[in-house]
């Protein structure tokens, strides 16, 4: 479980290898001196030699959501009730409900990769393709080193190019995504589907440019009547733009390479 930061990680460095069709880059990172970075590093020491999951890491083809939906329904042995000619946000919301309603019964069933591909495909289409960052995750290979922990208290003020940050991997949506995706205006549904960062897994990401975010006034006004109840459910004092758009800093890049056309290969400790 979660343990305290100690002097073992002071100055700790690690290397990440990235490759494209012609080159391999070896990039040095310095572990951030924080409790959450120390615990992530302990996870990575166990996972570094395991293959990453191609679905979690957006290395799998997620574009054909029609086919993935059919495969998911066949796997779950449920009728294919969602029909569409145009794939819009309302359809994606319905597909997400289908996934949610069967997740708990399928999560421990063998050979369930289609479940995760279908879910990732929904979000792939919501953001219009693969995210503009490097995403690394181990999926079921991570096993018991994932656990419940409220990570928002460790969020950095902003996300900086090339640094390593802990990924938000909840079965749900952040509040502004919920609003943007035109999900139901219901306190019950908001409390169910909106999630802060409550799962501490080993997944991490690297963005190709500095990232910040700011709430629109429309979102602030919309969220106001729901915010207090939702924050109370998850033990939050507030929900700020930092909570929505940032992440916990894990390691600081000691390089300034452009990684935009590179893929992650491995971690060297």
Brief summary of the model shown:
The chain has 269 residues and is α+β, with helices and mostly antiparallel strands. The protein has helices at residues 35-47, 65-76, 89-106, 113-126, 175-180, 187-193, 217-234, 241-245; strands at 13-19, 24-31, 133-136, 147-148, 164-166, 199-200, 204-207, 249-253, 263-268.
Explain this structure.
- It is a single chain.
- This protein is of the alpha+beta class.
- The chain folds into two domains: 12-54 and 132-268, Beta Barrel (Cyclophilin), CATH 2.40.100; 59-130, no CATH class.
- The chain is 35% helix and 15% strand.
- The protein contains eight helices and nine strands.
- It has helices spanning 35-47, 65-76, 89-106, 113-126, 175-180, 187-193, 217-234, 241-245, and strands spanning 13-19, 24-31, 133-136, 147-148, 164-166, 199-200, 204-207, 249-253, 263-268.
- A seven-stranded antiparallel beta sheet has the order 3-7-5-8-2-1-9. A two-stranded antiparallel sheet has the order 4-6.
- α3 runs antiparallel to α4 (113-126).
- The protein is globular, with a radius of gyration of 19 Å.
- 28% of the residues are buried.
List keywords for this structure.
alpha+beta, 269 residues, Cyclophilin, 2 domains, single chain, 9 strands, seven-stranded antiparallel β-sheet, 15% strand, two-stranded antiparallel ribbon, 8 helices
Task: Write the SSE topology.
Layout: E1 13-19, E2 24-31, H1 35-47, H2 65-76, H3 89-106, H4 113-126, E3 133-136, E4 147-148, E5 164-166, H5 175-180, H6 187-193, E6 199-200, E7 204-207, H7 217-234, H8 241-245, E8 249-253, E9 263-268
Antiparallel strand pairs: 1-2, 1-9, 2-8, 3-7, 4-6, 5-7, 5-8
